[in-house]
């Protein structure tokens, strides 16, 4: 190994460690921090509780919804919380588990962007792009202000999707796995980032395919991978899309959360006014959408070298033909167009598009397009190295801009303050989730539940049912001692009764498609209380009565598609490994 190769590896390692330190140093603090969304621990606890009860894939949360439950993980992308649940199950305490999810997000973001940049621009451009994305202020906003871990994981997947597109276009063997990994992680990490990025990724795929002038077979392979990734994630994608109207989620797209209240002005991309408040119409915003001084420096220098290269091309200097390719200009133009498109969608100028595409109301905040914009900006900055002839000056450009980004943006990657974990919101306790956390996260409570009564009629924490006697001649002859709990799982409740008087067994379960009611092993029609939870009228004598959460037709066929796709993936993996050997 030559001295130059050793130096390059040391250089890459140092910048990798520096980027990790700058983006994650706050995680070393012994305490935890308060962010806008502090429900991560409760979600992890609820998901692990369901897994331990044998509920898979996890869709139902037993304690959210004020103890009556709700299909939280059918609609809220579950992948980060599966990983968090695994860490928690292994004995890692809950706050450390959450911090590791933050750290993992930064690690994979950097490495995916570096691998993508290396194939497009070389190592110098790769380091610059990786540092620019990992330390983008918008990532700091998601991690340490909003606390939107799922969106940060969604951003983490984007470079891997683009990397897969590049590799498949170039017919690299590993392209399948990069693209599949990126798409599956994206689909299962954040719905809204998926909605924003998939059209952009298709535009990039078409543009890059045309730039590289590849045969149609690579395009068909890409389409096949997209379909396979959708199939693998079907167990989540299709129920989340087709059953959301059965919950109260549509009620949150009005008032403060209406997208029209959250468009940006172009000047906000240049305003370094960091804050920890909430989103509001300019100039009352409590948070910043600043792109970063280092990012602006890198973009400015890249444009200078681009103009210089364009002038050289016009005059057809002899050395130009050996150094700069037309494809480099087209690639820079592709990233520029996608960057401008994404920032345009954050501004009020795009409101006519939002008004005509009704499905975009679920995005809530137009500035969420910045999750895609910062990826395109980082690649745009890295592509500037394509127009620098000298290796030394490419290296110098990358070092200077990366250094400015590291020094200038590290201050954003910290919370407003740290809090005492023992009295904070980071807990997995079922009782506290029922009483406290349910007030914060109630988007997916089933439609028929009476929301204004839920918090006033909390069920007992230690039993899955309430016995309510049916009065005959106004004589009370029933007590809860006449019923015995046989099963109390997230997805199943079973009670044995021995009443001397007919009684209503009222389950602490909000009705939702998939819940079935059993009396002595036979399915009976579902009846609901005025609150919206399930109850059963049980006759005298010994009986078993219960409820069980199964599949709706949509969920059943989605699971079948996912299982079939997983089998195909396994087959492809084995086949490719055999061919490689």
Attribute tags:
581 residues, alpha+beta, 5-stranded antiparallel β-sheet, 4-stranded antiparallel β-sheet, 21 helices, elongated
Q: Give the distance, in angstroms, between the N- and C-terminal Cα atoms.
A: 27 Å
Shape: elongated
| Unreliable sequence segments | 471-478
Strand content: 5-15%
Across the major sheet, the strand order is 4-5-11-7-8
Secondary structure layout:
Blueprint: H1 3-24, E1 32-33, H2 40-52, H3 72-75, H4 79-89, H5 94-121, H6 123-134, H7 137-146, H8 149-169, H9 175-189, H10 191-212, H11 216-232, H12 234-242, H13 293-315, H14 320-323, H15 326-344, H16 351-356, H17 370-382, H18 391-409, E2 418-419, H19 430-440, H20 451-454, E3 465-469, E4 483-488, E5 492-499, E6 503-510, E7 515-519, E8 522-524, E9 527-528, E10 533-538, E11 541-549, H21 553-580
Antiparallel strand pairs: 1-2, 3-6, 4-5, 5-11, 6-10, 7-8, 7-11, 9-10
Helix pairs in contact: 1-5, 1-6, 1-18, 2-4, 4-5, 5-6, 5-8, 6-17, 6-18, 8-9, 8-10, 9-11, 10-15, 11-21, 12-21, 13-17, 13-18, 15-17
